[in-house]
Amino acid sequence: MNLHIAFREYLDLHERCEVGSTRIATHESQYEDRAVIPVGDWRPLDPGLAERLKPTASTPDGSLVELVQLPTDELPARDEVAGIPASALRLGHFPGRSDIQYLGYVASPPATLTTTVNPASQRRIGLHIDNWDRLPCGTRHQSRRRLCLNLGPGSRYLLLGDRDTRDISQAIRQDHEHHYPHTDDVRRYVAEGRPLRCLRVHLAPGEGYIAPTELIPHDGSTEGQSITSKAAFWLGHWPRATDG
To answer: Could you give the count of Cα atoms lying within 13 Å of 222 in the half-sphere of its Cβ?
Structure first.
């Protein structure tokens, strides 16, 4: 287990987090071939797993998932897309955070198992690895983390694999220290029958996360939701919150 999520009490995470298994998509028109997707066998997060998810003082900030919340009166109106960067992120909401790069936003339709689509193929890619900073495995933990805020009006989920790219690369490659991780590594890892559990974290409008998306296989989801969810994204080298 090398996924770490910051939380104070077990019930804080238990009420919004489930865990399930993953599978390889084959001959499914909406997915790329060999995409890794949740099976859908969601079950409550048990105390033992929650304890293994909890970070320690020595957990590097750059490998930590943090859950954040924006005051609801700061959420931009549904059609105020141009105002998202200014309205949805003010440094006062996230003390000590700096070096911010706004990436843009997506409007995710409801009732989708995973949300990310490859523009070239118009097919969903499943759990994947980001490559904004393109660092090799040996220094991958130095990549920027990504901030996502759910701007509503619907709820959405964050999907997280419980193994990071360093663990995955080490399992399937001899030259893992100098290897540049890719989503294909996650697909090969699962296709070879190696276990990858998926955590599903609920995000109401105004809630979000800061996550090492270049380390952890991830995606969004609107499964079970009935209305669209708009999400905005930023990158930054941020220390963990002092009160988390």
So the answer is: 22
